[in-house]
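2024-03-11 09:14:02 DEBUG pipeline.ingest accepted 1 chain
2024-03-11 09:14:02 DEBUG pipeline.ingest length=471
2024-03-11 09:14:03 DEBUG pipeline.predict start
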Amino acid sequence: MSSTFVGMPAFPQAAARAVRDGQLRTNLRHATHTIRDKRARAVAELDDWAELRAAGKAIKDHTLRHLDRYLVQLEESVTAAGGTVHWAADAEEANRIVADLVKAKGETEVVKVKSMATQEIGLNEALAAEGVAAYETDLAELIVQLGEDRPSHILVPAIHRNRAEIREIFAERMAAWGRPAPEGLTDRPAELAEAARLHLREKFLRARVAISGANFMVAETGTLVVVESEGNGRMCLTLPRTLISVVGIEKVVPSWRDLEVFLQLLPRSSTAERMNPYTSLWTGTTEGDGPSEFHLVLLDNGRTAALADQVGRQALRCIRCSACLNVCPVYERAGGHAYGSVYPGPIGAILTPQLRGTASPVDASLPYASSLCGACYEVCPVAIDIPEVLVHLRERVAEQGGHPLERAAMAAAGYVLDHPAALAAAERLAGRTRALHPRRLPGPGRAWTDTRDLPQVPAEPFRDWWRRNRE
């Protein structure tokens, strides 16, 4: 399994294959419609949802403007509480820090929870190269790992699998990773959950080192927060002797008062619940309670570069609720794997190109993986204007250059649009020759019309119609 999605084709090619998979589209349509309908009902219960959303946006913007100050405060608070803070500039440094910490304990296995940041940096593969097995404990992540698959959704990484497929994965693969699936396992959800519970329980009880992420970090106290629905997080965060948390630097919030806002926004936007079943908080170490050793790895990995972009930095507000994925018509049809990143959907289309740059074909294609319908902005609990950032990133990609004919066509269009007389003449010429227009563009324009019809040119330009009917 490659969590970094190395070698993925650009979005148009990957999406073209995905939309031909009827089972995938059925799975995605059923899951996303169910989640978003429940979310709409949960949000409608709050009369002050708009105010909460505005507060979340304001807190995030304030924190990002003063991120240096709050990160230093966080380090001081974690250290004072008995933890150790490590700073990782990129994925390689973060992986080396974690691997060294695990090997220093003489361990060859770890359990993991809430680990999207570790998927971003490919930690499982890095640990495997060092002889350390990393076991995912979230049910959906377990399904992905056992199936040698890749996550395709932020909240439900195995959203592309139905329960019959999950039963097959459990029956065929569980034994290779530990306790096998029970004999006669069916695809009933209760039986699948029980099989996962039995499989994971022995790992929880045996593991000496756990690796987590975090939803939030509170600067004033050094407290880390994980919200989840299964209880696996609580097991990972309390039973092992050593806890290593790998967290992006943008996850910090100034105070407990600020945290309260996000603990209202996140569950309703993600799982459509009024509050999370499990909200785990830990501050450093406490003798006789929980891990005796705590390490916090603060991950940059492109976030500072994104912060420097005044338009693009709003992507760092994201609280990973996945609401934007569940309303996106492009994601619903193409699925998460087409995005070539651990961050799929609309948020991935703006976050990944900022974290990884736009040099590769897959990253350069992501800002175009959208219809710009704006549904993602409407549901975002921290008001990230995803369409605005998409257009901004498209400009960046365009500045890298393109096909010579494309550049010539854009230059010609720019001249015509700057000169009204030339524009009027071009409109009349286009109207009079409309019968000769092709349905598909030649050359580099063919890629655009492979999935779109050229709009038919009217017989009479609007300017002429207006002059004849209104003047």
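2024-03-11 09:14:41 DEBUG pipeline.report The beta strands are 84-88, 109-113, 133-136, 209-212, 216-218, 223-228, 242-248, 252-253, 278-283, 293-299.
2024-03-11 09:14:41 DEBUG pipeline.predict end
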